[in-house]
Structures are given as structure tokens and as C-alpha cells.
Amino acid sequence: MTGRLVFFGELLIRLTAPGNELLMQSPSLGIQVGGAEANVAIGLASLGHDCAMVSKIPPNALGRGAVAAMRGAGVDCTAVTHAPGRMGLYFLSVGAGLRSSEIVYDRAGSTFAASEAGDYDWDALLRGAGLLHLSGITPALGPRSADAALAAARAAKRLGVPISFDGNYRAMLWEAWDSDPRQILSELIGTADILFGNHRDLSLVLDRNFSGEGEDRRREAADAGFAAFPDLKLIASTARQPVTADHHRIAARVDRRDSAYQTAEIDVTGIVDRIGAGDAFAAGVLHAHLSGSDAQVMAETGLALTALKHSLPGDASRFGVADIAAFQSGGLDVRR
Fold first, then answer.
1. Taking the domains of the chain in order of start, what are their residue ranges?
2. How much is the pTM?
3. With CB atoms counted within 10 Å of each terminal CB, which end of the chain scores lower, N or C?
4. According to DSSP H, which parts of the chain are helical?
5. pLDDT under 70 in the chain at which residues?
6. What is the pLDDT of residues 146-157, one digit of tens each?
């Protein structure tokens, strides 16, 4: 794959309670920019890739601030356009010990969610592109967003642009409207070359139960995915075992049609912020994939980036190639 990497999705404003406080415990909130597809774009831009965001924002301080943050991270925002409306928000209370983190969404009726398939000229937006990255969050926002995501995927397929799709199933968003997630997600996965999703995502779209317990059962789910979606070439996933809110055990896996690799489980302790860890994993896998690496390197690179993301406040990975190498070498002392 050569050419610019294109990302389509909603830019969000994240409002976070201080430290490990509950929401509204004190009268202050930290503000950051997030969004699943935007996080992957920032992660890959930090690794040296040419990334461009496609989205729609309101012409106000929140929208301008989101674009400034993306540009500051090295992402081209020429195709982020303006329309009246509001910015999508979400609120986060970071968990600790035996209390999990909690998210409250406030994104209904946002400028992006109200945009339509016809608002995006995909022939122009994908000209010279090497990849289109989408996630299941965009179609979950409502019927207009679902149509827009499907239009993007169909255009990329018609133009021969490879598609990377992250299932990112969000039940609260799908259940807020009269949706059919199985049908919509199945069509989107059917256009994809790369799927970020585990046995639960495949259980949903294939209407079958996969346990995910052990490598053989995870391969069973991947084989079923490859059989159902002939254009899929690669499925990448993580397995996460929370011990406490700030101690998780994580393994990574990459399945190809003729091979697979699963890493050993690692302990991620002292977690600062686990939001966006899956997007960091996607960025790591795509970085290795775009470099022509095999399944083992893809899985190990994705695991390294997702582990590092847990140490960083905010939604996106901002680590470079040297950071991945340092993590994989095991060096934990100060780098000077």
C-alpha cells in the first residue's frame, strides 16, 4: 500500500474529571480531542505516515480547536469541513482500583452525525489514497451516518482503495435509534481488507457463538470470518483481562488466511488512561502491515503501542518508532 492514509469519522471533545474523581465531584473538567478514527490517524502520523482526516465540524471554537489539535499532531485536516450544529462530546471519569472508568456520551444531533452521504465527494477525497480507515462507531450514530459510512466504503471498493475497518461496537449508540447493526456492520466488513475485531464482533455479525477461550477457539472465529467475507485478508484483535482498573493483562493476535500469530500475555500496570488503547493497537498493526511485516511483527507492534498508550493521558498514541523499539527492548530506566 502506498499513498495517503484517509480516516473518516467524528472528531470529539473529551471532558475528563480531574485525577480519579467522579464526574461533577469538583467544578472542573480537562478538555482534549478524541474520536476513534482520529486516534488512529494521530497514532500513524506519529509513526511517520501521511494521514488525512475527513469529517465535519461546527464553525465555532470547539470545532476550530479540534482541527488545531489534529494538525498539531501531524494530520492533514484539509477535508474537515464546516456546517452549522454542535460538536460531539463525551465525559470521562477515570477509574481506579476496583472501580472501572465510566463514559457519558453527549453526541446526539452533532454536526457530523447530521451530515449525509452526499456531503462527501469520495472520488476526490480518495484520489491517490493508499488506505481508507473506518470504524463501527460512525454507522452507530444514526441512519445518516450509517449511509455516509457505507457510501465511503463502497466508493473505496469501487476505486480499488484498501479498507481497514474497526468493529468498535457501541451498544448504547446503536440502541438509541431503530438500527440493524448486524446488517450494516456485515456490509462494511464485507468491503474490508483488514478487520480489527475479536470473537465477539464476529459472533454479532455472523449470528454464531464463539467462545474466544484459547488460541484454537479464536482461530475458529477467524476462519468463520474469512469464510463469510471473501475479501478479508487480515483480522487483528486483543484479549484483555482486567485485574483492577489500573492493572490489565493483554495479548495480541493477528490472523491471516494461511497463518496466525498470538503474543504472550503481558501485564500492563500503573494504568494512567486506557481510553484509545484499541486505536493505538490498530495504528501499530497498520504501521507494521504498511511496512510489509509478517503476522508476528504486526501483533507485537500493535501490542507494544497499546501497552504504551496506557501510560499516556488522552485518547491517542503519540509514540514514535524509537518508543516502540525501547519498549520491546525492555528498557525502563530514563532515556537520556
1. 8-328
2. 0.95
3. C
4. 36-46, 61-72, 111-114, 122-125, 137-140, 143-159, 171-174, 181-191, 199-206, 215-228, 277-290, 295-309, 321-329
5. 1, 212, 214, 331-336
6. 999 999 999 999
